[in-house]
Amino acid sequence: MGKLGIFAIFLCSITMVVPLVFGVAEGPKEVEEWFHRVSNHHHSNQKVTKMHFYLHDVLGVTTKKVAKPNTTAKSPTFFGETFMIDNPLTVGPSQASKLIGRAQGFYGFSSMEEVRVTVAMNLVFTDGSYNGSSLTSLGHNPVLQPKCEMPIIGGSGIFRLARGVALLNTYSHDDIKGNTTVEYNVILQHY
């Protein structure tokens, strides 16, 4: 068998092995089949996953102000001020600890009466068994409170159809620089 034949066998092998290794169907037909399998098994295949990590909100570096209405300067709650984020997620509280992903999205000060933000973000995992998967969180955060609960409303990859909760705890905050490290304890159900 010549080089071309060996190469053809190699390509066929890769084509068969890659879906087995990555394990998540991505085409419309495959996703539809996946939904049918989930529906047929109802809740018997649900998994519960617990995760623990830290988010580092570094103002001006991984968090950028993108909107500030003229009225914000007069508002004691910073109403209307909006930020885009691409914050690192790490295993430990130090920014130098192992990077496992990024929190990407935005938050804006959304209350005229309290210092509170509405957060829309994806927790995109780039390491370990969750690599290539993400969780989506959407909710409000009363930022002056040391603890907060944020809903997990969806996910992708191995977290497809995820729902759950992220319990946030302010680990550290620098009033002068505006930088914050937040501890995340996530509990979710998914298929």
Automatic annotation (TrEMBL):
<protein>
    <recommendedName>
        <fullName>Dirigent protein</fullName>
    </recommendedName>
</protein>
<dbReference type="Pfam" id="PF03018">
    <property type="entry name" value="Dirigent"/>
</dbReference>
<dbReference type="GO" id="GO:0048046">
    <property type="term" value="C:apoplast"/>
</dbReference>
<comment type="function">
    <text>Dirigent proteins impart stereoselectivity on the phenoxy radical-coupling reaction, yielding optically active lignans from two molecules of coniferyl alcohol in the biosynthesis of lignans, flavonolignans, and alkaloids and thus plays a central role in plant secondary metabolism.</text>
</comment>
<dbReference type="GO" id="GO:0009699">
    <property type="term" value="P:phenylpropanoid biosynthetic process"/>
</dbReference>
<keyword id="KW-0052">Apoplast</keyword>
<dbReference type="InterPro" id="IPR004265">
    <property type="entry name" value="Dirigent"/>
</dbReference>
<dbReference type="InterPro" id="IPR044859">
    <property type="entry name" value="Allene_oxi_cyc_Dirigent"/>
</dbReference>
<keyword id="KW-0964">Secreted</keyword>
<feature type="signal peptide">
    <location>
        <begin position="1"/>
        <end position="23"/>
    </location>
</feature>
<comment type="subunit">
    <text>Homodimer.</text>
</comment>
<comment type="similarity">
    <text>Belongs to the plant dirigent protein family.</text>
</comment>
<keyword id="KW-0732">Signal</keyword>
